[in-house]
Design goal:
This protein has 425 residues and is α+β, with helices and mostly antiparallel strands. It folds into three domains: 159 residues, 2-Layer Sandwich (Beta-Lactamase); 86 residues, Orthogonal Bundle (Helix Hairpins), CATH 1.10.287.130; 145 residues, 2-Layer Sandwich (Heat Shock Protein 90). It is 46% helix and 22% strand. It contains 15 helices and 15 strands. Strand 4 and strand 5 form a beta hairpin. The longest helix has 53 residues. Pfam families: HATPase_c (PF02518), HisKA (PF00512), PAS_9 (PF13426).
Amino acid sequence: MRQPLAWRQLRVLLGGWKRGTLGDNHDHLLNSGNGAITYSRGEHSRRDTEDQLRLLISSVTDYAILTLDVRGYIASWNLGAERIKGYLAEEILGQHFSRFYPPEDVAWGKPEWELESAIRLGRFEDEGWRIRKDGTRFWANVVITALFDETGELRGFGKVTRDFTQRKHAEETREMERLREALHARDEFLSVASHELKTPLTPLQLKLSAMRRTAESNPEALVADGRLARELAAASGQVRKLADLIDDLLDVSRINVGRLPLEPARMDLSALVRDVTTRYEAQAAAAGCRLELDVPTSLEGMWDRRRMDQAVTNLVTNAIKYGAGKPIRLSLSADDTTVVLTVQDEGIGIAPTQQHRIFERFVRAVSERNYGGMGLGLFITHQIVEAHGGSIQVESQLGRGSTFTLRIPMKRLPTTGGPGMSTRA
């Protein structure tokens, strides 16, 4: 007696029955795509196993398991399909499976395309919105398997659907929370950035206004005792600070699009560290800090000088800001493969819960009201170091200061025959 189409499809879906070839003393196997189900030999056991498999498929409620004929019309239906999609078997059998798809997907032929893909690839998987009987939508994970018999003839399709609506809603909730956090961070950043950009502008404006009034009322006073030079130097300092802030913002923009260009060239890192220290001696002294330097006479390699200057400057100014009134120690050393720069302060320190976050964009480990800043210096430094193939770490205790350790690979210098030139690894 010929079996019903749906059950023949299910047998193909499960891999089909095959007689054992190891002799009468061995069990028979039900082969599937990725393994085999073993069942006892004998016709009676075979019928029992068929009944068990039929009951398994029909009883599962967490999965909609159904078969389609070669044209996509529904040939079998289980309890899971009834629970997930809302149709009774007598309502849906013989209907085309495209009725589960939103109108916009039906319009462009998605159901037929999925069957064609399953035939071509053997299996098709998708996630997307599907339609229940009551018209509501649910987020479905769908696997369609093309069912071929042992002769290679297409017998239909097996279709397994899972309802992932709760997972989808959870993902959307997390995404909304992430967007809210991003918007909050943006608004906070804009507030801080506007404050930081105004900080150098306000004294600069006051300075220029005072100079204009003096020039109008008593121009000779501007040139007396070098006053004009001092006033211009102070104004230049404010302009430089403003330019640095804008450069930081531009660097963040470049980093966001994956463009932080490096221009490595032969340079002396020891000389650079000394230059940065000299440049900030006055600012450190004003904060009550003494800069202590321990660097070799020369340490040459191939790095981007401007970016390395930026990284060292950020670490030094960070130490001055948070280590006011205490000494700051800079040390530089190297072996055959790695350069190590440490910047140590004895300032306020960083809480353990904040140490993993301080290299993130716009993150400040302390109150912006007390210390200011846009939370970009350490983020940019981290990006510069990584762009050189290196790493940066922090060790810190509250009230006892912080030590930043920067490690970058030594870059081999190009060989040159000029006097005083050497190749270093």
